[in-house]
Every structure is written in structure tokens, then in C-alpha cells.
Fold these 2 entries.
Entry 1:
Amino acid sequence: MRAPTDIIQQAADLRRQIAYHAWRYYVLDDPEISDAGYDRLFRELEALETAWPALVSSDSPTQRVGGGLANGFAPVTHALPMLSLNNAFTDADVSGFAQRVADALGSQQTLEWAVEPKFDGLAISLIYQNGKFLAAATRGDGATGEDVTANVRTIRAIPLQLSTDHPPSRLEVRGEVLMLKRDFQRLNDDQLKQGAKPFANPRNAAAGSLRQLSPAVTASRRLHFFAYGVGLCEGWEMPPTHSAILTQLAEWRLPVSDVRQVVQGVDGLLGYYYTIGKQRAHLPFEIDGVVYKLNNMALQAQVGYVARAPRFAIAHKFPAEEATTELLAIEVQVGRTGALTPVAVLEPVSVGGVTVSHATLHNEDEVRRKDVRIGDWVNVRRAGDVIPEIVSVVFSRRPPNAREFVMPTHCPVCGAVVIRLPDEAVARCTGGLHCSAQRKQALWHFASRRAMDIDGLGEKLVDQLVDQGLVEDPADLYRLTITQLTALDRMGEKSATNLVESIAASRHVPLERLVYALGIRHVGEQTARDLARHFGSLTGIMQADRDALLVVRDVGDVVADAIVQFFTDAHHRHVIEKLMDYGVESVSRSAVSVRQTPISGRSVVLTGTLAAMTRDDARDWIERLGGKVTGSVSRKTDLVIAGEAAGSKLEKAAELGITVWNEQEFMALINEQSGAH
Ligand code: IVH
């Protein structure tokens, strides 16, 4: 039965709202409404569709997880072949490429390039018919791919309907399906918990997730997508440049990376390469290089293709991040919470330009699963600034005398018994703070940059302080004297004075940093921030019972129990009392931002790379100065802070006439305001 007009209207309206909020959430990473608000809209639509089944259409957000893949992955012939890119590895390769393009154009002028990340995922082609998502296919061999429509439909970042009243009659969007690093981490944690094999990297995880016969499984894997070009196109006059095409796709609410840019000449290309190389570890997704494309579409056509790759574009790859080496031994490290981590000692090897001599093996199960033995040849991987890890064993090179690893039954540092709870992957030293390894780790964490930020208190120094009995717990730091410190190895008068000063300066920190610094199990920075906001004081948090804690965002049973347990411990209470006695006084965020600053209550967007600090630090500062950080530039943005290689957000800001600060202006505000403390 056909639904009444007002019901049809209501459903269309709900779909529009849901699509809008999904875009804010999945594409811009800047939601406007709460998850609960979103769920409410979704349930309202579901209820309408249940009452009026004729309302259901394939582009309804309720239909993302639809029927299975009846005929597996049927072959699809691409209307235009999906090509690959040639690779450049060195600066000379890049100038050679640019020269060939210039020669092909017979041009002496500086060329304009659209530059973007080389996403490390899988190439996908999406077909939109009159603005409606119709089908998706993998690249396959370039000529024929596989129909993965049902699975791609579950990717929330991909709009089921383009946001325009005048869509092309047919449009093929090309791009990359990938898994964000954080979703990859979560997936692998889940895999481990379920005793399943973890994925080697986000690309494998994305590929495995896309090729599932059940779309419900794909949906649970949270894949992401970035568009990087257009294939077939009918009923739309394409803009004259590649960058403008991507901007148009973004306006239709297709996800397009904002790390892309337009640059001039070879210097521009290489500048982008090195800037992105530095940002790489901080990007939310994996990239294996950058891609340069001649920006002008007419010139692209003029330069043309060689074999199966365009001559007007090239991928400039980052150095390989995997290498093969010999595993000499497996040592066991004791962490802050007593967790014992097996660490591989390697014959030093260069991985992506950095010498690696140790790699983590995570835990005992991981050693078994990968079947790593002492004496094996192993593949080692490092990505950005994360700890290198063993990817796999080269079984064909296993020597006959390779030895299996056995987890010690006693802590290698303090000798206490090691236990492993039945539902835990890790074995733990039961020595608690009697174990000097745990004490050291706790101190080191306390002093770390994102906790109390005590400059100059590195690992070596912590070792000495603990080994010589000068410091037993974090509070002892505050009574260290210059005389005590100068007696230590490699500690001059000057560094001792600086250290005492930075310890003293750390006494006034925002509450969330102190909470994080305490090292409560399961309380990371975000939870610390939420707790600080909710309770406003350390005493408030200490007095909260389980029920009071469970009200805080993202605090579940495990976290609440860990917090209660931490503050019930007499030793912990004693240390906190000592800290207070020494004048450590945490200030809640609201107390800091009571004072008016030029950005109080303003909505601020960060873009590009800052030289002096990480993005997290910048975000921290903005929040401390009373500003609110949002992900994307809109009319509601008050200020954009642009570092190096700022991309489309900067263009957007200029378009909307929003104030833009460079890093110096931002630093000036920080200096002025922190001086005023
Ligand atoms: S353009 C005609 N842009 O790299 C060239 N490709 O080696 C079409 N890729 O199969 C590709 N990021 O899967 C282009 N920003 C980007 C890319 C990108 C990743 C992948 C894509 C392609 C492969 C080519």
C-alpha cells in the first residue's frame, strides 16, 4: 500500500537528516548531534518503514546492511580501465618525471600539480546514477573487477545519495577503501580477545573485510573511503582541474582527504613529499607515499598514457618499512602495571631509514601464534614512530637449533611470582610497587610530556633515582635537591637546576593531566579528561563510588572498578596526600579558562603541520585557552590556525572570510597567556 504524502515527506526528511549527520560524523569527524540523537532519528525512520514497507528504497540508510551476496562477487567490466601508477623513489626520479611531462607539453613554464596522499588500501569504483549510489566494484586486473556493492553500501562514509539537486546522470567515483588506524587497532584487539588471528596491517584488514560474503561482517569492521578521482562521467561538465573536481566531490559530500594540495614545480612536489613524510605517523590512516597529478585536465589529456599508467601522474613512495633480520634473543620487559612483554632482540637492521634492534612481541600468545623462535629470521615492520614489531617468520630459513620462548614464572626484575589470569592475554609480575621496574615505569609515565610534563626526566635518570633509593614514588620527586641530583652520573649543576625547576613548575597542571599521570589502569588521556570535566576536582573523583563513575562518558564496569580499586589502595592514597603536601595542586579546566582569552568560546579549526608541537598539544592549548576545536571549516568557525602544508581547509577559510592565524600568531597567544599564569 502506498503511504500518504505526509508520511512519504516525513521519511524523505528523516533520510536527509540522517545522511547529513552521518556525513558530519563519518566524513568530517565533527558530529553536530549526540549518538543518541542520531539513533533516535534512525529508529524513527525504521518505524515508518516498518509501518509502510513500500517506503523502503535502496538508498535508505536503513538498507546499508542488506541481503547477502547471492552470487558471490560477480565479475564487473569497468567502462574505463582502472590504471595503475608508476613509482618514483628518489628526488631525481621526481625531477625526471616532471621533465618528461614538460617535454611532452613542449613547455618551459612551471607546471601546476595536484598532490595528495597515496592511500594504502584497495582501489574501488563507485557508480552513481542520477545521484543515487548504484554499484561498486574492486579494481581487479584493471579491466574486470568484482561486484562488491552490498559490502561497500555498509561503509558509512560513502553517501547513498549525492548532496545536489543536479547530479550527473552517471558518475564513476574512484577512490580507496581503507581502515583507519584506530579502527584497525580495535579490530585486532577484538580478534585477539576472540582467539582469532590478528591482521598484519590496516590494508590487509580492509581487504579482508571488504571480501566478506556477509555484509553484516563488513559493516562491523568500520571501513572508510577517500575519493581521488572520476572515471566515467555523463551529464556533467567536469571542472577544468583535478583539484576542482575533488572539491566538487567533497561538496557532494563524498569523503575527500583534506591533506591534498595544489603546488607549483618540482620544489612544490618535493616540499609536499617531505612535509607529509613528517606528518605520516600522525595521520589517522596509513599511506605509502604521495601522488602527483598534473592539475589541468586538458594538459593531462595532452600528455596521455604509457602502457597501463598515466604519463601525467606518478606515485612518490616512502621508503619500505619492512626488513628481514635475525632474532637473537627474546627478553622480557616489565611494564607500569606489571605486564610482562616479550621483546625480540634483533641483529640491527635498517627499516625505512631507521636502525632497529628491538621489536615488541606483545605477549605470549602472540609469540605462539606467529610461531616465533629464538634464532629465526623474521620480518620486522615499523610504521612512523610506533614501536617496531615482528610481522612474520621466514619459516624456510629456520635453523634446526631454533629455540621456543618460555615465559618466566618469576619476574626477571624483582623475582615476584608471575601470574596470568584466565581471561587475560598478559602475564603480570605480582610485585606491584615493590618491583623496581614497575616503580620506574610509573615514575616515567608520571613525568611524561602528556602527563606532568617534567622536562629532563628521562628513562636513564629515572633508573638512577630509583636504583639509588632517592625516589620511591612520584611525590618524592618534589623534594629532590640540586645537591642530590648533581651527585648523579652525567648531571651538571645546570641540568640539575633546570630539572628541579621543571619539577616545581609541574605542580600546577590541569586536573586531567594529574589524573592521567597517576597511571590508573584503563584511564587514558580521554577518560582522564572526561573524569576531570565531570567531577571538577581530584577529591571529587576519589570520593566517587562505582555508580557515580558509571555516569561518566565511556566509563564502563571495567574502568569504574579500576578507578575505585586504585583509590582504595592505601599506598596510592598516601602518595596522593604526599603530592598535596608538596604543593601539587591541580586546577580544573574550567578554572583555567575562566579568564577571558582572545579565543574564549571560539570555534577553532587546526590544519596543516605545526613545527613546535603536535596536533594533540595544539588541541590541548586551544581548549585550555577556552576555545573549542572542531574538525572542519564552516560558517560557524571563528578561527583557523594553519601550519605548514595546510590544504583545502585553508582555501575554505579564505572563501568564507574566516580569520586565519599562522603558527607564530598562535604561539604568541600561548606565550602571552601562559606567562600570565
Ligand atoms: S590515482 C590513473 N590517487 O594507487 C591512476 N591512486 O598504483 C589512478 N592510490 O590502484 C590512481 N592513493 O589504488 C590515485 N591519491 C591517489 C591514490 C591512488 C592510492 C592507489 C590506487 C591505485 C594505485 C596505483
Entry 2:
Amino acid sequence: MCGVIGYVGSKPCARLIFDGLKRLEYRGYDSAGIAVLDTENGPAKIELVKAEGKLIHLEPHLGELPQKATMGMGHTRWATHGAPTARNAHPHLHGDLVIIHNGIIENYRELKEQLMKSGVEFKSDTDTEVVLHQLHAELDRTKDLKAAIMATVKHLRGAYALGIIYAREPGQMYVVKQGSPVVLGAGDGENFFGSDALALLPHTNRAVFLMDGEFARLTADKIEVWDFSGQPLRREPAVLNWSAASADKQGYKHYMLKEIHEQPAVMSSMMSRLLDLKANGFVEKETGLDALDLGRIKNVAIVACGTAHYAGQIGRYMIEEFTRLPANVELASEFRYRNPCIDSSTLVIAVSQSGETADTLACVKHAAAQGCQVMSICNVRFSSIPRASQAVLYMEAGPEVGVASTKAFTAMVLSFYIVALAMGVKRGKVDPGRLEKSFDAMRRLPALVDRAVNAAGVIEEIAHKIYEAQNMLFIGRGPSFPVATEGALKLKEVSYIHAEGYAGGELKHGPIALVDRHMPVVSIAPRDSTYEKMISNIEEVRARQGRIIGVGDIGDERFQSICEHYIPCPQVGDDHLQAILSVIPLQLLAYYAADMRGTDVDQPRNLAKSVTVE
Ligand code: AGP
């Protein structure tokens, strides 16, 4: 998943593009480059700089670019084809044509062979360079970049967001969208494009969203949009309600820590927008349920990846309890390849913070093709997954920049709780007493989340004890089982400590062989219906010298007495919502362990924030 950004206007753009890339670096950071159009020294000419590694390695080269150039584009890479070297870094230049690309061209090998047979010599190992030479060949035939683009896309299979500049057509650049995210920014006397709106926020909050199969021409004063057949399209800018400030660290050492601390406010703002807390009611146009035919639903399939998948696991408990509909949770990357039994009676719920995860988006399209009703739970307005869904619940958790998802996870869990409860009420499966109990628990949630987030001191001390561990286990039962898997994912993705989450009852079927006096075992056991069984599982671990780190209720002395370390959690009075409180210590544990190990907490190695390739 790469980051792309472009500018055309009247300002010097090299530094502006670089700063935009910094906002996109979480999308990929193994190499980067910038190309600008120099119109000050004779005929228009493209100048570019590239560097391997993170953006700090590109910055020293900015001075090599023409400082008065007012049109250009930049790219920060997460390598898919070709090693992360300067040679493979974007932009890719051939003659007067330069291109940047986010996505994967699935048929690049056959195109490359055809181009090589026609005498083309390649300088890189990327699929992107194939697009460049294909475009160049079409340009030779059409002598017009717009026509060449329309001819080129007919050859391409796969996902691509392209930025294109042609020195013989100065003052304009093209953006092409198929399967990868790209948004246009409409400014005053200047226009932009970027992989997401975050990068454009310091300049404009007016966004034009291209759909797949569309391309645009940007000049300083105009944005024109066509579909791939050349049909002109009208696209009015949407005004985004994010501020540039909300996308900054605001004094925190890392975005991840800031976003952990934002969770109380996120819970509170979500409930004020999605619920009528006085009448124990739901705001249907915000929950998205008004767009569904609930009477038609006979089963629910939840599809997601990574952290969103674990949130879906918790959501499944909620949906089955409140609606009495059978629900299952699927890894999006597996779902559509097993020919699932879904049809018009199925509700597919796609969960995605970014709204751009390719595996999840592919499931949404597959489900729609099977006649399913599709709902998405998402954090980014106008992103691809909600746009392909018929019902959407926007979490509005604010930009989540840290690659490790934290506030989005808890927002997803709360979203599921609200959707499941609202569906259950409409289906007549939730009695008034249960509804009252649920709203009471939700009203308590923000303050309790605030307490959990501010118990960081205890957790930092425990992190000191485990940050040099090589392996860790996380165990839980019921809704605490997905909490355990999410806690393990947090730890491994930011600290690089190998960690696995297991159902507490599963240890004795094999994994307990891993337990010895070197193995920290984070054990989540609130006093819910599985508590006694979990205590037995924890005793089994303890009998083998496992180092128990307990996450349980405040005042649970019995549990605390069998732990090496104990993290008390406030009780919210609802087994499902308790998952939100149990996960926060695990987020903090992962954060502090990573910071102590000196890893790049916000941009862990090999990862990207939004996986927009399958
Ligand atoms: C979570 O910490 C990871 N960054 C990753 O697993 C993420 O949850 C997954 O890629 C799904 O992303 P999405 O929510 O944007 O679809």
C-alpha cells in the first residue's frame, strides 16, 4: 500500500509534496520520490529525486529539485513488485512522461513481455514501469495523453491509482482510479490528489471522490472527470469534517498513544450521535439500519481482516445474543474463495477502519453479486467499502494514523453492540429490562474507559518486566477470547515479540506444551459466565510455572492472588462491553513494550496502515 500525492497551482511545490508524503508515510515507507515539472529553464522538463528507506532519506534531496516548480507529485512505497531500492522507487520516468502508482497490475508480466519484444528496455523490476511504457506506446499512437490513458487502461488488469504528468502538456496532470484509493482535493487556484484525505487536510477539506473506472485532469483552476469510455462526469466536492489538527500527535510521543487516549472521547461522541440516551433509542439514519430490510435477514456473515476481524468475533456474540440470528465471522481473505452459502437472506457486515482493505472490499462485491444485503462499519467517509455497501455505520473515531489499530477496535466493538441491540429490539428479541441494562452500561462506558486508559502507570511497570520476552501467550474465554487474540496482535505488530492468542479452554489441547517459567501468559478473566473455567485454565498454566499477568475485575483478590502481575479493570456491568475495558491494558502493554524495545511504534517494519492489495 503506497502513498501518492500531487499538486498543481501557483505555490512552489517540492516541500509541499514532501510534507504531504509525511502524512501518508503510514501507508508505506520503504522508499520514496518526488517529480516536479520545471518550466523556468526553457522547454518544460521533468526533474525527480528518489531515495531508499523512509522519507528522512529523501528530505536532503529536495534542494536538487527546481524550487520554483508549481506542479508535481510524490510517492512513498510499500514494495509489492521489486525490492525496496531507489531503482524501484517511484516516480518512474520515461522521456517526457512520469508516473506514480499505488496498487498491483496483475497482468504485468505478459504486458512486459510484449513491450520488451517491441524493444522497450526496463530500468526497474516494478509492475508500475510496465504501465509507464504501455502509456508511452499509446501516446506515440494517439499524440494525446487523455486518449492514451483511455487506450492504456484497456490493457491493465488489477488495482491502480495513477498520477501522470507529461512535460509536453504542462500545467495539467492526470489521476486514474481502479481498485486503489485516491481522492482529489479542490483548492482555490490550486488542486491536489492524494491516497486519502488526511494528506490534503492542511490545504483543503473539499474532496472529490473518484469511483473505480474513472480518471481526472487537474489544472490549477479546474478538475474534470471522465469514465474510462471518455464520458464526462460531474463530481461536486464533498466537505470533510476532519481538521488538520485532529490528524496531528498533539503532544503525544506517538500516534498510537494519542489514539489510545482518545478512546473515552470516541465512545462518548459515538453514543451521542448514534443513540437517544434519554429515550433508550437509536438514531436510525446514523446506525445505517434504516437502509436494510431486516425482515429478510435469516443469517449474518461478518467479514474483516486483522484487528477488524477480532472486533467482528466479539460482534458475533452480540448479534447472536440480541437478535437470535445465526452469525459467523470470516477472514475476508478466505471468505469468497470457499464459495460460501450466502444469498438474499444473508446480511454481510464488512468491518474496516480504512474502508480500503482490498480483501474486505472484494468480499463486499462478491456478497452484493450473490444478492446479500451488505452493511459496513467503517471509519473513513466516502471510502471504497462504504461506497459499495447499501448500509453504513460510520464510527467517526477521527483519523487513526498509527498502523496498530486501537481506538478503531473499541469503536468497532461499540458499533457492533449498538447495531446488534437495535436489530434485536426491532426483531422483538430484547425485553425492556435488558434494553435498560444495556443503555445503563453504555452510559457508564466513557468514564470507565477513561479510568482504564489512565491506569497506564501499572502497565508501564509490567511492560518493563516482559519487554525482553521472546514469546508470549494471551488467553481468554467468551468475548475475552477475541480480546486475547487482539492483544497478541497488538504486541507482535508493534514490539515484534512473538505472541499468540488462544481460547482458555484450548491450551490443554496442545499450546500448554509451550508453557514454562520463561513464558508470560496474559490471562483475561472478568467475572462473567466463563470465569470459573478460566481460573481453572490459569491454574493449569501456573502449575507449569507460567508467568501469569492477570487482567480482571477491580477487587478480585482470588484472581489477583494467583498472578505474578495483576491489572485491575473497571466493570461496566455487561459481558460484551467489558471487552472494551479489557483490551485497553493490552493496547498499553504493547505500546510500552514496543517503546522500550525502540521499535518504530507508529510505522512498524513490513506493515502499512491500509492493505489495499489482495
Ligand atoms: C491492526 O492493528 C492492523 N493494522 C491490521 O490488522 C488492520 O486491522 C487490518 O489490516 C484491517 O484494516 P482495516 O480495518 O482498515 O480494514
